[in-house]
Each structure stands twice: as C-alpha cells, then as structure tokens.
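Bit of a strange request maybe. I'm writing a small parser for structure token strings and I need a real example to test against, not something I typed by hand. Could someone generate the tokens for this chain?
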Amino acid sequence: MSTIYSFHGGIHPAEHKTESNSAPIQAAPLPPCLIVPLSQHIGLPAKPVVKVGQRVLKGECIAMADGHLSTSVHAPSSGYVSAIESHVIAHPSGLSATCIIIETDGCDEAIAATPHPDWRSYEIGELLGIIREQGIAGLGGAGFPSAYKLNSDEIHTLIINGVECEPYITADDRLMRERSELLEQGIEILQHITGAQTVLIGIEDNKPEAIEAVRTACKHRDWAVVSIPTKYPSGGEKQLIELLTGQQVPQAGIPADLGIVCQNVATATAIAQAIIEGQPLISRITTLTGECITEKGNYEVRLGTPIKYLLEHVGYARDQSQKIIMGGPLMGFTLPNLDVPVVKTTNCILAPGDNELGSETRTQACIRCGHCAEVCPASLLPQQLYWYAKSQSHEQLKAHNLADCIECGACAYVCPSALPLVQFYRAAKGEIKEKSIEQRQAEIAKSRFEARQARLERDAAEREATRAARKAEAKAKAKQDARFAGEEDPVQAAIERAKAKKARLQQSGEADSVSSKLDELKAKVERAKFGLEQAQSSGKEEKVLTALSASVQRLERLLAGEQAKQEQTQEPSE
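Reply from user aminoacidic:
Good idea to test on real output. This should exercise your parser:
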C-alpha cells in the first residue's frame, strides 16, 4: 500500500456523479457533417494533406503534425471534404480557427489499420513516432501532445491519473470499469517507453467499481493502485504528484524535473489502441449530463461532432438551460454557440438547469475574508492576484506566481462576494502572454535593425577604403609623371625635338653619320613608350620609366653633340 500525502487547500463540492455513471458507455450517432479543427492540443496546428472535394476514409490522415509540439489529425468517418475554412472552435472567447469540414457518406468505411503487436521489439523513438502520427494528445487536461511529453530522460516514476475529481464528469470512471484490460496494456507501453521502475495508479475513493476493475486487470503487475481521499482538485497533475509522492513540482518546473511523468487513463487507453490495434485518435468518451439533458450518460463521440447535433440526440431541453458548459462546472467554460465541435479535450458537456449551479449572485466588493487563500491548492494569494489583475500590474502578477494558478476555480467557489476570480486570472495570463510575444517580436526587430545598421556601416567603410586606395594610386602616378612636368606627352615631345634636330642636320648635309643611331634611339623610345603602357597595368612602371628617361636623355645628348659638331665645322668657312 503506497503512502498517501496531502496538499494545501482544496474543497468538497457536490459531486453529481451518479446521474451519469450508472449506465454503460454508448455510441453516439454519426452526424451528417464533421467539423475537425487542425489544432486540438497545445502547440502548432497540423497541416492539411487533403483537398476540397476529396473522399476520405475513416482513420485516414487528413492533416500532418507540424513540428515536435504537434499531432496529426485523422478523419473520424468516411465522406467528402467540403471545405477547409475558419470555423468557431471550443474556446471561451468564441475564437475561430481553421477546420476541415467533412460531409459524411454514411458508409463509415475505414482505412486498413496497421497494428503493432510486437511493439516490445521497437525502438523507443519508433513508438513515439507512432503515437505522434496517430494523433494522441492528453485527454484529461490541456491536451499536451503525448509523444513530446513522453520524450523525457531519467524518468523513474510513472503516475496514471484516474482521479477525475471535477463534479459531474464520469467519463474516466466508466472507461476504467469497462476497458481496464486495454488500460493495463497502455500502462505497460508507457512504462516501456519511459523506463519507469515505479508505477502508481491514483483513483479517488468515490469510484470503488473502477478501483476494483483496475486492480483486477493489474493484479499480475508490480504496480500500486492507490485509492486517494475525495477532494477537489486532487486530479490536478501537481496535486496528484504531491498526494502520491510527497514531492512538490518546483515553480516554473515540470514533473520530469522530479523524474516523474503523468498520463491520464483515457490517454493510456488511446495509446494502447494506437499501437496494438493501429487505431488513430478519432473519438473519445464524453459525459453528457445536467438537468436539461434527458438521456444522461457517457458516449463514445466522434471528434468533430457538432455539440448541437449531440445535444439533440440526448434529449436536450433548450428552453430550460441557462448555458452550455464544455467541461465541468469549475474548470469548464460556457460555449459561445452550439456549432462548436467536439475535440480531443472534450470530456464533458454540461447543460445545467436555471438553478442547478446556484442562483446567479450579483458580484460585490472583496471583503478580504481570506477564504480564497485557504482553499488554493497552489498556495497562492488569490485576493492579491485579483487586485493586480484588475490594475493590470503584470510585474506584480509574475512576482506572485500567477503562472502557477491551475484555474481550478476553488477560490471563486468559496468567495462570498461571488467574484469571477478565474476569469480575471485567465484574462491576465492572456495579456501577459500577448505582451511577452510583442516584446519578443520587438527584440527580434531590434536585433535585425542593429544587424542591418552594422552591415551598412561595414559596406560604407569598405567603399571608403576602396576610394582611399584609388586616391593613393592616382597620387603615386601623378608623382611619377611629375618627372616630365610641363609637357603633355614628354616622350612624344622628345621625339619631336629629335626629328627637328635631325632635319637641321640633314639640311647641313652632315646628318647621315647620325641617322642610323638616331633611328635606333627613336625605335628604342617607341618600344619604351609601349612598354610603359604595359607596365602601368602590371605595376612595374617605375623600372620602365627609368629606362625610358635614360633613352630620351641619350637621344637629346646625341642630338646636342651633333649640333655642336656642325657649328664647329661651319665656323672656318665663314
């Protein structure tokens, strides 16, 4: 027998379990239209892999998982895809999201299943891949993708959550009674995947039939089936861990930090069906209850079934109902309209009478009684959180650990002023999340702007360096050309002077002696000029300029010498 611990706070509301847990699970009828959201879990929505007009079969993948924190979506029945469009989904705000609309053909024709009876020989990664591809997400809480949650190292304790503490809901109770053998197979698979040495199955003591059925199915296993005292919210993940192990999950931490992983009984059963039978998650057990429903009970409902169609099947008296709640009276939310479809996290549809959940009490000012702090299972200060939420003091909300609030509604249940505390907390969480996203986007934009500025400055520096190099090169060239200052083309000028002197020598009749030398020097000068042009492109102009200058000087000296010789020859004749 495992030791049972306790947690802070908690309440004991009226259970209202017997109204729906006495009859076996029934199959809900197939609706003429299925509205299948692409996102039925925490994380990224799946990507459609079908087109409008395409016929699909029951169990066929219609949207593939997009990333690790995502799961695939499958057709709950055979039919034709009539639209892929935005539609209102199960959300307190009436949010719309992309859905695949399937007009069922009534044949309920299924795709061939791929069972894995020899799953023990599979690698852990392969099993996680099957779970992800078969669309398994948590069926007892927020709908966390199971493959991602199970992909943890150093897990020593596996906790199976069969508490189902919320009033009215009995879906898990009936599942444990009727499908305990399948549950046992699912737990075995989970233990194999996690490598946990210890398995604890927690069930509230107000479900004696379920406790007995699970113990019988697991009698040959070294697992502990623990009957825990009935108190709300014992089914919260952190609260159940504290009840069964005495350990508290650290703030901003997860159970895996303690070497623990939790899975709901319905999730474990779905994993067994996915791996052993090859059946994807296309339906779930949902409790339909409340004074305004005639045929109360638990039904196997296809995902995507419109709530309106489901209520019509169970004898819903619309005129007597004040509202329709998805989930229980404490953690559930009022549906914006009845066109909302059933999703993977829809464990209950509650249609209460006008006075069933208590008369609508007008909210009053907080009287600072402190009852909310006494019952808070997370040991928070709900009164302070309420004031900070009203004043939008986000930093104070963070400092008072608003993120640890599980939105169980215990504080609002005991509040004598009838304050809608949970609504304030939900709104504040949404504001903080939105502000965090905006801040992250601003930081990304700032980083991109700074990177762009650095790139522009770098490019400008490179251009300036290039201009400086060109300027220095031009300056050096000008310095070299300064040797022949005053002449536009010093080489051509020297040649012209040589020609003029040669002409004068030819007129005197004494130029033949130097003609050949003069032509030879002229040819050298021409070659030197051509070489200079070639050298400038190769960076060797200094050497060529020196040779050219020497040739020009020799030419000028030769011409000067010949002129002097001529003058000396002419003097005696005069």
